[in-house]
Amino acid sequence: MPWHPVYGGAPWGVPCAGVTAAQWRASKLGVMTAFPPVPGPPSAQNIELIEALREDFIEAGFTNDGVAELLGAEAVAALDREQVVPGQLRVQSELSQQMPSAEADSTGGPAAEAETLSQSQRCAVLTALWLVAVPVTYHQVQKALPRTGVEGLRQLGLAVLGPEAVWPACDLRPYLVETRAGSRDLWVTSDLSSHQVTGALPKDHVLGVGQASLTLAGITHRRPVQTALDIGTGCGIQLLHLLDHAEHVTGTDLSPRALDFARFNLLLNAPALELDPRNLEDRVELLEGSLLEPVAGRTFDLVVSNPPFVITPRQAGETESDRYTYRDGGREGDALMQELIAGLPAVLNPSGTAQMLGNWESSADEAWDARPRSWVSQAGLSAWFIQRDEQTPAEYAETWLRDASEERSIQDYRRRYGQYIADFASRGVQQIGFGLIWLQKPAEQQEDTTPWLRFEQLTGEIQQPLGPVIGQTVQRALAAHTDEAGVLQKALHTPETITEERYQRFGAEHPEVIIARQGTGLRRSRPISSAAAGFLAAADGEFTAAQLITAVCSLTETEEDTLTQEVLDLYIEGYVEGYVEQ
Ligand SMILES: C[S@@+](CC[C@H](N)C(=O)[O-])C[C@H]1O[C@@H](n2cnc3c(N)ncnc32)[C@H](O)[C@@H]1O
Q1: CA 129 to chain centre
Q2: pLDDT at residue 495 in the model
Q3: Which residues of the chain have pLDDT under 70?
Q4: Which residue from 83, 319, 328, 385 has the fewest beta carbons nearer than 10 Å?
Q5: Which of 326, 328, 337, 339 is the best mutation target for the ligand 1 pocket, counting ligand atoms within 8 Å of the beta carbon and taking the most?
Q6: Beta bridge partners of 439
Q7: 97 phi and psi, to 5 degrees?
Q8: Model pLDDT, residue 52
């Protein structure tokens, strides 16, 4: 299963301001030839109106939990698969209960004025509008958002007013985040996703919170830092997380449309993010430009990026407007990853870290990590790459053509599919890897030390958030890299989440394979020697690792150097914990 977002969806079209009733009815009958232009991004001009909207959302219970309660588990799971029908049925049922009559609605007379909606009906109106593409009436919106009103939504650019109904101008959904101070209810706007528009996605589409966004947010080690940079910020989702542990954050993007969404999202969530909406610049900076250009000459403690890494066949004479900005960096092959990694040392402070997602190509006679290794060795960075998935050129083409709903035009789909295949063949590419990246610039006093490098494939299920595990693993690896003796003096113990599996043929005297398995985090499993199994069985925090190694080696007639190396690996990978740090 690829871990990046793949959008499927129902052919649901949205009308825009300026669409006549006749045009819209025609479009619903499938006779409209030109689909109206995509609405603009939300407007961040009117801070009071944004505050009013937030208050309306809270009062309507339009939160993660509120929507989950309204829709139920099945419809929520369907929404996660970009399927809206179960949710549509659910909100329609909620809205049909004791809602204002059509007559009251159209006249807006005294009966309609007096009508009130329950909290769950208000939540249903907003869920209908922004999450499951069910049109709502002016009156329903007015009642669900009394402070903002229909006109307020239009001014903010969040809805378009059709002749008979209100339609979403963007995707807007509650987003629950875990912060150091507990859970916070936020809301995120982005462009309408594929189930809310007809045809392929527009090229300047601004991505919402997709699987890849969540993956990056989950793997980021959230240590307190002064400065953090998010390259290709999109709707600003990573910034919302970074503000919890960075004093100052900078988001860059090539797309001004994306930066408008990001600014709006920051303002909408200002109190939860501890931002002063009138002085956003105190803690946040949004810069337009390509990759690291907007921050040339500056350095940061932490860089995160879900970059536009998707490998795309280049076309003669193509311009920026021919590319899906949200995923295509406009380079050949995986050159964008190489360029970005090469530029990182210049924008990282000493000991500064970068966490990213990425793609890399490999040919038939190349290991998957050949290219990533060459990128980091040229940049002089410590690195940990975890390959999570691998696809053939054909699988890759299918994934990304589906992602932008390009299969909705069969001719374009065939043409583009062929181009992907030809493009990969031109570079002899057989596999495309997807994965997680951690990088670190050496500390000032360690510039001459050999960088720590780790490249591994972990394609099984992992337990997010992995940020703490990533932080702990690299801390241990760097300690073992520079102070092996210090690590061996720690008293270690085997956590309860680590279990042992033994495999042997019937009647065999000893197990032929012993596997140590983690029940949490990266959920690794690794074959271990019987000496290491003895070490893990004995490690209860009473003795130092060095003492235990000596004891186990004398019992099992094992070389101490061999077991020492194995124990260091087990310690780095979290199979044993430092019980009493000495
Ligand atoms: C995959 S999206 C990531 C959005 C968001 N950060 C997230 O985590 O979901 C990639 C973003 O990179 C932006 N982008 C595309 N080309 C870029 C470039 N050359 N320099 C900077 N940003 C770029 C796109 O506009 C898009 O917002």
Answers
A1: 24
A2: 94
A3: 1-38, 98-114, 579-582
A4: 319
A5: 326
A6: 354, 383
A7: -85, 115
A8: 98
